[in-house]
Write a structure and sequence with these properties.
By secondary structure, the protein is an alpha+beta fold. It is built from three helices and 19 strands. It has helices spanning 2-21, 108-111, 295-325, and strands at residues 29-31, 39-43, 55-59, 64-73, 79-90, 96-98, 112-114, 118-121, 126-134, 142-154, 157-169, 177-188, 196-206, 212-222, 229-230, 245-255, 259-272, 278-280, 284-292. The strands form four sheets. Strands 1, 3, 5, 6, 8, 10 and 11 form a seven-stranded mixed sheet that branches. Strands 14, 15, 17, 18 and 19 form a five-stranded antiparallel sheet that branches. Strand 17 and strand 18 (278-280) form a beta hairpin. The N and C termini lie far apart (111 Å).
């Protein structure tokens, strides 16, 4: 047992050391804010409106949308910018970003084209860059997200400034989220008679055709619903594009180690319309399970059993030794008493 526990502990420490020394690669691009670069971008002032935060359209498959981007050089030196369009994606930190220029776009980034891919501006100058979005015929209904980007290369870092383009292609909108790979990992506790901590993990997947977020809650209980422990508060997920996934990991305290535990994950899809209003949809629930073995208690029980076995064996040895050291019993000897034979007598007759 000692050898097994030692090997297990070494494996845990090795895994922890590997996780601690693994780092993510540094990003090769920078999506900057207008406060950190010498230029600014905004939506053009046209029939769609003025001072828009970003671009939002509803179009049918096969239609075209025409709009523009305004760029201003606020610096004191001439500025040369690249202009391109790209698809959007959700980063691991929940922020929306745009694909780099060398990455292939298949949605809005592929359908939108700026009138010019380069722009030169002197100090204080501004320019409007027209662009067109041509929605391919046969495009399925749903939400698509991308953006129009201005960028400058500084060494190995690309400084970028852009505006999102949200396009909803007409047709049936079917927002839907699913919960996948839900499981519970029990951490245990040093006290063999106490509750322990667990981690509930699962993946959200946008299985619909609309950009959707999720409101979430979860709990962990025994297999028969007893000893329920609520999970810690879970923040709403970011808005996920169709087909995107979002990993969730939440701690659960006060879990009774009942060998096998069950979990319930509840999510409420949140659909945001063009005006910014949020509509909650029907709740989706997903069961999960995991092992919650009271290892500390089992170790204590095993040690107690070993102690009992050792005590019993020692008592048996003492009894055997006592039996071997006692004097042997003397067998009872029967005594034989010989009967005296009568003497022969002779009578003489005269």
């Amino acid at each position: 047992m000692r050898s097994t526990l030692t090997r297990a502990l070494a494996a845990v420490l090795l895994a922890a050391g590997f996780a601690a020394t693994t780092a993510m690669p540094a990003a090769a691009q920078d999506t900057a804010s207008q406060d950190t670069v010498p230029w600014a971008v905004s939506t053009a002032d046209n029939e769609f409106g003025a001072d828009r935060v970003n671009y939002g359209y509803t179009a049918e498959a096969g239609e075209q949308v025409h709009d523009g981007l305004k760029v201003v050089n606020n610096g004191t030196a001439p500025l040369e910018l690249a202009v391109y369009t790209a698809d959007a994606f959700t980063r691991p930190d929940g922020q929306v970003d745009l694909l780099a220029r060398d990455k292939k776009s298949v949605g809005v980034g592929a359908w939108a084209r700026a009138a010019s891919d380069h722009l030169k501006l002197g100090p204080g100058e501004s320019a409007d860059v027209p662009f067109t979005i041509a929605v391919p015929a046969g495009t399925k209904a749903g939400d698509f997200l991308g953006g129009i980007v201005t960028s400058v290369q500084q060494g190995t870092v690309e400084r970028r400034l852009g505006i999102r383009i949200r396009l909803r292609v007409g047709g049936d909108l079917t927002p839907a989220l699913s919960v996948e790979d839900a499981h519970v990992d029990y951490s245990g506790t040093a006290n063999p008679f106490d509750t322990g901590d667990a981690t509930l993990s699962y993946t959200l997947r946008n299985t619909g055709n609309a950009i959707t977020a999720a409101r979430q809650s979860a709990s962990v209980s025994s297999l028969f619903g007893a000893w329920s422990a609520p999970a810690a508060a879970i923040a709403d997920s970011p808005q996920l594009l169709p087909g995107e996934t979002w990993h969730v990991s939440v701690p659960v305290h006060g879990v009774v180690p009942s060998v096998r535990v069950a979990a319930d994950v509840s999510i409420t899809p949140l659909l945001t319309d063009a005006s910014g209003s949020v509509a909650p949809l029907a709740v989706v629930t997903e069961p999960a399970g995991g092992w919650a073995v009271p290892w500390t208690l089992l170790v204590v029980l095993v040690l107690l059993v070993l102690v009992v076995v050792l005590v019993v064996r020692r008592l048996r040895k003492r009894r055997a030794a006592s039996a071997e050291g006692s004097p042997a019993a003397v067998p009872f000897a029967e005594s034989e008493t010989a009967a005296a034979e009568p003497a022969e007598s002779e009578t003489a007759v005269s």
